[in-house]
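A favour, since you know our structure tokens better than I do. It will help me judge whether the discrete encoding reads sensibly. The space below this message is yours for that.
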Amino acid sequence: MSKHIGSCDVNEDNCYHVIIIGGGPAAVSAAIYCHRFDLKVLMIGEEFGGAIAKTYLVENYPGFFETSGYDLMEAFQKHYEFFKIPFIFDTVTELKQDAEHGFDIHTSGGLSYKACSVIIATGTKYKKMNVPGETELHGRGVSYCATCDGPFFRDKNIIVVGGSDSAAVEALFLSRFGKKVNIVYRREKIRAEPINITRVECNDKIEVINNTVIAKINGKEKVESVEFGDGTIFPADAVFIEIGSIPQSDIVKEIGTNLNEKGEIIVDKYAQTNIPGLFAAGDITDIREKQVITACGQAVSASYSVREFLTENFCLD
């Protein structure tokens, strides 16, 4: 295998055939496959596990029947650690192309790396409602993670904002703890998967309030109530917000990466972006299905594309 690739000598400690940015299922899958291709791999992420690790129930990943996202990612981590692939807990703040079409990467921790290719698997972050009280009461009744904070609201009145399948799943989980769980959704009916709609309808603790928006979250030291768009004050001890997500694609904008109107990275069927050597996988991309299994599959495509790119452009044997 050729050791000197472009401007990046992989014999140097801070130079890699491929750097994977992210820590979720797509990043882990890409790292394992690239390692098996005998590439020098580094993964950089703020945390290991990604958003799925905060999901209390995963029923659609083959081989894991009714597992939690945490347990699923724990299994991923064991698989990852078996190969002794390095992982850096840090935030990538800058991604640049160098003169030889490689990449320079800088982190908030003051570290710098060079890579012949990069796979972006940064996923998404929670979308906020941007209403009064949301920021002020975050951590004091306002939450974006039912798995993290649900147990703190045992026998309390809980609101879940949103109408997606994720919102329904969160409401079902929170019904284990709360005295009452109200799903507040701005449209006619929630858009969850049929099995979860049935579960919500059969749960005596859950009520759906349709055609309603929250205009304000009230409380001094903690959440006390919410104000609906029509001015109605509704008592609540906790508000769990599940209204979608925002792609974490800021780091690729500066180098001219094509994004769609949602801010997702546009890729072809091989996970290639419009930038040579830059690939992307998982929820950060414009793939329609935002699922663990599709993220993993797309990461495999990205890994094969990395190997092909290095072979064709940098004389990789």
In short: The longest helix spans residues 292-313. The helical segments are 25-36, 69-82, 146-149, 165-174, 194-201, 250-253, 292-313. The chain has two domains: 4-126+245-313, 142-241.
